[in-house]
Amino acid sequence: MIIKDAKFLMSNTKVEACPAPNKPEYAFIGRSNVGKSSLINMLTEQKSLAKTSGQPGKTQLINHFLINNEWYLVDLPGYGYAKVSKSSREEWRRMINFYLQKRENLTCVFVLIDSRHEPLQVDLDFIDHLGTMGVPFVIVFTKVDKQSALKTDSTIAAYKRKLAETWDELPQMFRTSSEKSTGRDEVLGFIEQVNAQ
Ligand code: GDP
User: For the EngB-type G domain, which residue ranges apply (predicted)?
Assistant: First the structure.
C-alpha cells in the first residue's frame, strides 16, 4: 500500500464522539514505551504524526488518523505503566473495553509487544482478553533492530508456546523496526488485503 495521505483527525475519551464508523478501523495498542508512536510514524512515513511518549500513561485518549481517505488508524493509550494510579488504570480499562465492544467498524487490533522481552503477564492477559471478547487482532513484535534475529525468534516462539496453552488458533504475527522500516510492507500489505475483502 502506498500512503498518499495521513492526517490526524481528533482525540476522544468517548466512543460516541469518534468519527462516523464508515471506514475500516485498525487500532494500535501496547505497553507504554513499546514503540507504538514510532511505529505509526514509520508506517505513515511522517516524522511526528503520533507523538512519541514524553509522559507515558498521562493522557488517555483515543486518537484517530485518516489514511488515504480510506481507513482509520487509531492510536490507543498504552497499558502497564507502573506509575499510573489505580483510578487511572480503572479509567483506562473502562474506556478501552467500551471502545473494543462498541466500535462497530473496528476491523483489527494490532497488539504491540517488545521483541526483546520474554512473555509478560500483562501482555498475555490483554491478548487473552481480546480473544475472549472475540475482537480480531494480530501481534506486532517491535524494535527488532535492537537484537539478533535469533533472539527475536526465541521471543516469538515463547509467546507461541504460551498462547497455545489457551488458544487453538494463533494470531498472525509481524516483526517490525521503526528505525529500519522493517515490517512496513508486511503490515500495510495486511491492512490492504483486509480492506479489499
Ligand atoms: P510508545 O510509548 O509506545 O509510543 O513508544 P515510542 O514510540 O515513544 O518509543 C519509545 C522509545 O523506544 C523511544 O525512545 C523510541 O525512540 C524507541 N523506539 C521505538 N521503536 C523503536 C525501534 O523500532 N527501534 C529502536 N531501536 N528504538 C525504538
Answer: 22-197
Q: Kind and range of the H or E element at 42?
A: helix 36-44
Task: In whole angstroms, give the CA distance from residue 24 to residue 14.
Answer: 18
Question: How far is ligand 1, taken at its centre, from the CA of residue 117, in Å?
Answer: 14
User: Ligand 1 centroid to 72 CA: how many Å?
Assistant: 22
H-run or E-run covering 10:
strand 6-12
According to CATH, the superfamily of the domain at 6-196 is: P-loop containing nucleotide triphosphate hydrolases (3.40.50.300)
What ipTM was assigned to the predicted interfaces of this complex?
Answer: 0.99
Q: What is the pLDDT along the chain (197 residues), one digit of tens a residue?
A: 999 999 999 999 999 999 999 999 999 999 989 999 999 999 999 988 987 655 554 568 899 999 999 999 999 998 887 777 888 888 899 999 999 999 999 999 999 999 999 999 999 999 999 999 999 999 999 999 999 999 999 999 999 999 999 999 999 999 999 999 999 999 999 999 999 99
pTM summary value: 0.95
Q: Kindly state if the Cβ of 152 falls inside 6 Å of ligand 1.
A: no
